[in-house]
Amino acid sequence: MYAGKLPNSELQKIVLGKIKNFKKEVLVGAGIGEDCSVIDFGGNLCVITSDPITAASENSGELAVNVCCNDLAAKGAEPLGLMVTLLFPPGIEKAQIEKIVDEICYASFSKDMQIIGGHTEITPSVNSVVISCTALGTLDKNLFNNIPKPEPGDDIVMTKHAGLEGTAIIASEYEKELTQFFGKDFVSECKSYYTLTSVLEDSREARKHGFKSMHDATEGGILGALWELIYSTGYGADIYKNEISVTKTTHTLCEYFDIDPLRLISSGCLLIICPDGKELCRKLKDKGINANVIGKLKTEKGMFLIDGIDGKNRIDIDEPQSDELYKVIKKVFK
Fold it and tell me: Residue 235 CB: number of other CB atoms within 10 A?
């Protein structure tokens, strides 16, 4: 099978379909498009998520924390604790381990999140660093119980820009080559996108405004995240390609490697379904967060990417496949 996440159809068939949901305390369990579980312990709700980092080297510690926190944020939760499993290949230097641990400690502390345990091991079973984090957050029960259901006519809002995480990772892996071709300033801007990979503030603003559903964009990029989000609603949607923000820098990088920025891993982008997307975008922009209304839910089934001013070019949005990142980094990790 190809590198990356299992396709959702295969995931359902060989993994999720075998899982039984039988605990009444588990309000949200494993499912397509569900990155977190929600557990009721009687007071506030506990939200739990788990994610690995396998394709990044530079800033991998910070990314590992952000990716897990983004899942919590998409559920409307606040981060509380973090468990970290670190697997290192033989031959790694102590300085490399310390750098990753320092990144994890700084990123978690900056989010008021305590590291509560985990595991560290050097093993020949891996040939590059693997970081796996399990994050716990708290969610107000009243908020969870009173989130309205998405319905046709609701807006779909996207924060920041597509392909942020992928741009930063690729620039780090190919820094020398890209510096020679585009210059230091270009590479520095690409790598600066690491600082934009958290959606905690995006989520907090959406909670103030009122949201119906949120989903962060990771593997599969914006189009993959849109498929999962829209699929979970049971409705269809029209997505307007011209409204999806992609920086000039990301466009240039993707053209150079002949990859699609809309299918490139995009941590830092939050997709939000809400009744008044324009007002939410205004509030997000007031906080310095770029945001656009990129589409609407509709009663008719089908997810379409509408390209062009006349709206006649309608492209089916398919379920996520292997991320565009793997077309590039396979040269490094093969």
Answer: 21
| Domain identity same for 170 and 315 | yes
Residues 97 and 175 in one domain: no
End position of a domain, from candidates 91, 120, 145? 145
Domain span including residue 57:
8-145
* More confidently predicted of 237 and 36: 237
Between helices 248-257 and 184-192, what is the axis angle to 10°? Answer: 110
In whole angstroms, how far apart are CA 325 and each of 133, 168, 177, 225? 21, 11, 17, 15
Most confident of 2-6, 10-14, 78-82: 78-82
Answer yes or no: is 2 within a domain.
no
Burial class (CB in 10 A: 0-12, 13-18, 19+), 115: middle
CA geometry: angle 87, 92, 96, nearest 5 deg: 85
Using the predicted structure, report yes or no on whether residue 213 has a pLDDT greater than 50: yes
- 292 assigned to some structural domain: yes
CA angle, 137 then 118 then 219, to 5°: 60
Number of domains the chain contains:
2
Strand residues in 36-193 grouped as ranges (E):
37-40, 45-53, 78-88, 114-122, 130-139, 155-159
11-53 pLDDT tens trace: 777 676 776 776 777 787 667 666 667 888 877 898 999 888 8
80/161 same-domain check: no
pLDDT value for 58 = 79
Question: Considering the domain boundaries, does residue 248 fall inside one?
Answer: yes
pLDDT per residue over 95-124, tens digit each? 999 999 999 999 999 999 989 888 999 999
User: Is 202 inside a domain boundary?
Assistant: yes
What are the distances in angstroms from CA 71 to CA 125, 142, 162?
Answer: 28, 20, 17
